[in-house]
């Protein structure tokens, strides 16, 4: 019985891997949040060249350069604050507040103060995703 269950689990995992590699498969998790909320302005690679960016003043930030603009360190806490409206950045920014990122489960996150605070998991995951875009 255990061998049959393991074969079933292995089959499901393999099917999931094949589906994840198939063209046209929708992204999940943080990649989905980025695709649904950020791509239109920041573009698929995060360079600020999304379809809505044309003519936008100021232009959307190049998200690939956040670490470079911060002494080589990705400003994760500041990015998360920007995403949920705790810090609005430039006063002329068109950056909306993404309330949906505050929903769902929380994780304990050290915001740099040495204290671990309950923080929405989706928010942390999206910031981690943006960190992967850094040059």
Automatic annotation (TrEMBL):
Keyword field contains Protein biosynthesis: no
UniProt keyword annotations, A-Z: Signal
InterPro entries, per database record: Cyt_c-like_dom_sf (IPR036909)
Top-level taxon of origin: Bacteria
Signal peptide: 1-15
Protein known as: C-type cytochrome
Native organism: Paracoccus nototheniae
């Amino acid at each position: 019985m255990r061998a049959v269950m393991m074969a079933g689990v292995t089959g499901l995992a393999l099917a999931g891997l094949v589906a994840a590699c198939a063209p046209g498969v929708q992204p999940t998790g943080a990649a989905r949040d980025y695709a649904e909320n950020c791509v239109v302005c920041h573009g698929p690679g995060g360079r600020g060249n999304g379809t809505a960016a044309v003519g936008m003043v100021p232009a959307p930030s190049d998200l690939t350069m956040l670490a470079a603009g911060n002494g080589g360190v990705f400003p994760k806490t500041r990015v998360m604050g920007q995403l949920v409206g705790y810090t609005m950045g430039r006063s002329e920014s068109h950056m909306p507040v993404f309330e949906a990122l505050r929903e769902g489960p929380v994780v304990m996150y050290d915001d740099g103060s040495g204290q671990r605070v309950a923080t929405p998991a989706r928010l942390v995951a999206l910031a981690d995703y943006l960190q992967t875009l850094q040059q």
